[in-house]
Batch of 2 targets.
Target 1
Amino acid sequence: MTLEQNLRAVRSRIDAAASAAGRDPADVGLLAVSKTWPAADVRALAAAGQHDFGENRVQELLGKAAQLDGVPLRWHFVGQLQRNKAAAVARTGAVVHSVDRPALAATLDRAGEAMGRPVEVFVQVDLGGPEGEAAARGGAAPADVPALCDAVAGAAGLRLRGLMAVAPRNADPGPAFARLAALAERVRADHPDAAELSAGMSGDLEAAVAAGATLVRVGTALFGARPLPCGEFEEHQPRESHE
Ligand SMILES: *Cc1c(COP(=O)(O)O)cnc(C)c1O
């Protein structure tokens, strides 16, 4: 399978899931998570019409953003973010999906003010692990999410797009996505412009679309299997190109 064929197959899955849920497929976007894969693969998918790409490590994002300068694409940062690297991420123009604490929001707010254009962000929700323990993948506790969203929405250097979450591993994602959807509805009541929901990956995008996801984040189904299970902590080097 070529990258372009994978892209068509993933888009078909999204469209089918949207139709099955009685939703307009045009309301569900695709974020291609290119972590571990080389810039050449991003370039190839961009040439095939893919616009949004996600990374979860700062150095890898900065490296690919530099290599692909001038290619019409939008970066997204989906990994845990330290405050001392937040401004560098913001300067790539990336949408930050992992705002999970007030201090990080404040740092990104200052970066947005300094750039003269707001940083677009999602507030990440911790949906817990299979037994209800903290998922260790970042995210604010659901109880803290409304106040964090209020802070983001009130910051001149930020624009709140909505909520983001990763479903618990090794568990039915349906109940977790249902809790996420209820929280998103509550946030939207206070912040009508924060209408987006970033949820769903290669293995669970159908469940996420059924629960109202407007942006699914897909890596493996587009690029192939990564050498290690997806996680935020392993070190990795960009892999050989598909081409
Ligand atoms: C890696 C990653 C994805 C994509 O996961 P796949 O299972 O490869 O599709 C989505 N979201 C986040 C936050 C990730 O780190």
Target 2
Amino acid sequence: MDLCTLGDIAPLVTNRSGPIHKPLPPDRYIRHGGSAEMRWESMRGQGYHVPNDLFFVRNHTVTPTIDARTWRLRVHGDALRHPRDFTYEDLLSLPTTTLDVAIECAGNGRSFFATQQGEPTEGTPWRLGGIGVARWRGVRLSLLLELAGITPDAVDVLPVGLDPEYTEDGVNHGHVRRPLPAGKAMTDVLVAYEMNGEQLPPDHGFPARLVVPGWVGVASIKWLGSIEVATRPLESPWSTGFYRLPDSELTAQVVKSAFELAWEARLPAGRQHILHGRSWSGQGRIVRVEVSTDGGETWQRAHLRGRPSAAWAMWHFAWCPRTPGPYKLLARAVDETGAGQPARAPYNPRGYLFGAIVEHPVIVE
Ligand SMILES: Nc1nc2c(c(=O)[nH]1)N[C@H]1C(S)=C(S)[C@@H](COP(=O)(O)O)O[C@H]1N2
Ligand SMILES: [Mo]
């Protein structure tokens, strides 16, 4: 066989087409066009972090293939004394920081506006699987901006992705990008190149992505190509059009809870079941979780596992259903700021921040 021909074919085989590179087995993921959410029952028995092969993917277009050897992160703008490029090697050689952080789509839970509240919205009909917690390792954005000589009058920071330009309804909005106030950029934001101890996977932003703790997922720009730092406010369609609430900006995530159970899971009657779940908030640690198995008439405390941690809380609850039939399981959490989960989420046309209590159907038989 001609080895040269083989060499030509190999890259075509490894360079998969399609919007997402990694496998999306249907027993672990629900597909939504070019995006995919994890099935919560797949989290049963997992540790604190969502494995890379289960982590949800939200792509505006497609996962690009980027060569780290020629990749550069361009840091520029009028609020920098030394604008400069960073290579992949530069990033790897700088002091590292490791953080457990949740990334969650602002539209996570959106489908419940329609199914629970009778308020259909535009956008991907996520259930609750548009969230994941990973251990991210990389360089603090503040360090890169200091190396580039950020000035005290910096106002906004605009990270831009290298994935293809995004077109909606015939309008080209350009590359995915969304400004962050300089204050947030200099506090706890990471330029991550590792996810759960592995090189950042292509679908999650290889070679480097932003990780913005507590904020809606769209702030965590993947496939970073450039970062502008300006002395004036910056904007993009992702801050002025979509990913905005009618009367306010969209920044921190709200409180949510999910059971590690299949939708319409079947449970034998007359036996004790340990129901497992997780709760999270963009604003602080979860301090209390309650579960109701009677449609919200009565609530009981769930047991939190371990010490409260910022990314999410793991909990369990013992339930012994005696009577067969359909049930709705409810979980609600409260974070350290006192924020909880209401019975109804405030409606907004694009269906962001569904923080109401989700009714999880199960069948006892
Ligand atoms: N460059 C770029 N960054 C992006 C996106 C994108 O499409 N392109 N999607 C954003 C959105 S809306 C979310 S919710 C998160 C999802 O991150 P994940 O795919 O790693 O789970 O990435 C954000 N960063
Ligand atoms: Mo998102």
